[in-house]
Amino acid sequence: MAHSSPFPEAVSRLDLVRSEIGKVIVGQQDVVDGVLICLLAGGHVLLEGVPGLGKTTLLRTLARVLHLKYSRIQFTPDLMPADIVGSVIMETSDTGGKALKFQPGPVFSNLVLADEINRATPKTQSALLEAMQERTVTSGTVTHHLESPFLVMATQNPIEMEGTYPLPEAQLDRFLMKILVQYPTREDLNTIVERTIAREEPELSQVMDRDTILSIRRACREVLVAPHVQDYAVSLVMSTQPGTAYAHELANKYIRYGSSPRGAQSLVECGRVYAFMHGHAHLSIDDIKTIAPAVLRHRIILNFDAHADDQTPETLLKEIITAATSKAAQTRA
């Protein structure tokens, strides 16, 4: 197989990236991998977790290790779209001539941290989401292209809902993954405290640059997808859609809206990168099964009964994924 030759070098490069990040970020391997998967799959990631779990530090560290431009936007109710995308200003030259010039906003970076995205008004949220979707920013009649790679990592705090504007379902669907940032384990927390006491900033090496990332991104597309694996991804998405012939019984009972077709595309895209990161030349059902919760949890909308019965996207997906996996195993047998 000729196409698997570039894998070992690229995989070891990605392992290096993870170990460099590990010098700063303790634990949280699922979060680090999820953000890397989204970067290599060319998508965006939504992180949900209480403040102080290192979300900001993660992206800043990633920018240093990958030698990418980084910017942070703190979302607040008075943030305007122009504060994100930029605005046109009047400039006076040395000779006194005046001209309009576009001043790019913080969205013109490779890695953009949208902190507490649910605090800004829908108008401002949609300015960022348009840039995420189109990879362009329009100012007046001029369209400016955003440089690749372009990753938005948005964070939201699940606790304070006072004065927030939850992201509408259609906009949530723009995120490739939604990752839940958990509290650190006891050992990890001890390590974090020890590092705080040591007070020494870790020396970070630059492991990759923009061109390497883009070439690894292209290589990820070489990962083969067998028909039965693609079929598994499609079945998984269809079993979340209530009222259809393929719906899981729990979907009919608890889900108001299931995953859109984008969910199936995302399963395959993220699955390929996950397989690549683990040195596999083929996408497997296990790869998709591993990443499915992060890809689908924000794409299913629960109904009132689900809330009344203490069901969450996590509990439902666990059952739906298990059922789809055993069905796929039976079909292959």
From TrEMBL:
A Pfam family annotated for this UniProt entry: AAA_3
Domain of life: Bacteria
Location of the AAA+ ATPase domain: 41-185
Keywords noted in UniProt: ATP-binding, Nucleotide-binding
Single GO molecular function: ATP binding
Record PANTHER family: MAGNESIUM-CHELATASE SUBUNIT CHLD (PTHR42759:SF1), MOXR FAMILY PROTEIN (PTHR42759)
Protein family: Belongs to the MoxR family.
Protein's name according to its UniProt entry: MoxR family ATPase
